[in-house]
Amino acid sequence: ELGELTCVEWTRTRSRNQREVKQRISNHLLLRFTSSDCLSDLNLLQLIKAGKEGVFYQARMTRGTCKGHSMFTCKISVRLKHVDMEVSIMRKLMHHKNILQLLDWNATAEPYILIMEYVSYGTLRTFLQTNRAHLSTDPELQSLLTIASYHVALAMQHLRSKMVTIIHCDLALRNVMVNKFPWEVKVAEFGLARDLTRMQRVPLRWYPPEYFKNNYYSYKGDVWAFGIVLWEMQTFGELEVWLVSSDTATH
């Protein structure tokens, strides 16, 4: 069975620090979903974030629902291998309040689509940057950040308990979503998650020293990345290490 989905035309441009994915909404394209109740027009509303693994949008179905939902977080990607891995992992991490839940997906033709539960406030990094002036004067700020940190820790503990050999490998403030305020945050973006036996590229600024010294990584790499996330929170999403080159950051 087929569902109508907004087709996205992809172009890529190289910026100073990252590869940005740009998109232009064109016509409608029929794409195959896995469940028969996700058959409707999916409209992309607001861009949440863009990165190497794809773009995240707030999205809405103009008619019908998907598993009882009409508003979604929609990830669009052109990397089938990463989408397949992400779907496989997210299906095993269902029913945890601090992990963004997968509702449906399309992996039969580009653009590949993941439909996930709706989040109200986008990424935690953007939320902190946007509301810095207000939050910095809030006497409860540290308590709020502690709650957010605890939610991230619960999500990563769940990943470890369900999939012992899998690491997230892209834990960063940009990949933590804010569902409610005061806090309910959810870990997202499992497109780079991998088996411990496989070697792939990594987000350098969030990866531990032993990777660069010995070309070795383990689940402890996620622990290191969690520490960087805590650092990001305290700086409202602005780390000085982002201002230097990758080579300088690794040294």
From TrEMBL:
GO function terms (MF aspect) = ATP binding; protein kinase activity
A Pfam family matched in the record: PK_Tyr_Ser-Thr
Which species does this protein come from? Neolamprologus brichardi (Fairy cichlid)
Q: Does the keyword Aminoacyl-tRNA synthetase apply?
A: no
The reply on keyword Metal-binding is no
Keywords from the named record: ATP-binding, Lipoprotein, Myristate, Nucleotide-binding
**Protein kinase domain location, by residue?**
42-251
Instruction: Enumerate the SUPFAM superfamilies for this protein.
Output: Protein kinase-like (PK-like)
Q: What protein does this entry describe?
A: Si:ch211-167j9.5
Looking at the record's lineage, which domain of life comes first?
Eukaryota
Tell me the InterPro entries matching this sequence.
Kinase-like_dom_sf, Non-receptor_tyrosine_kinases, Prot_kinase_dom, Ser-Thr/Tyr_kinase_cat_dom, Tyr_kinase_AS
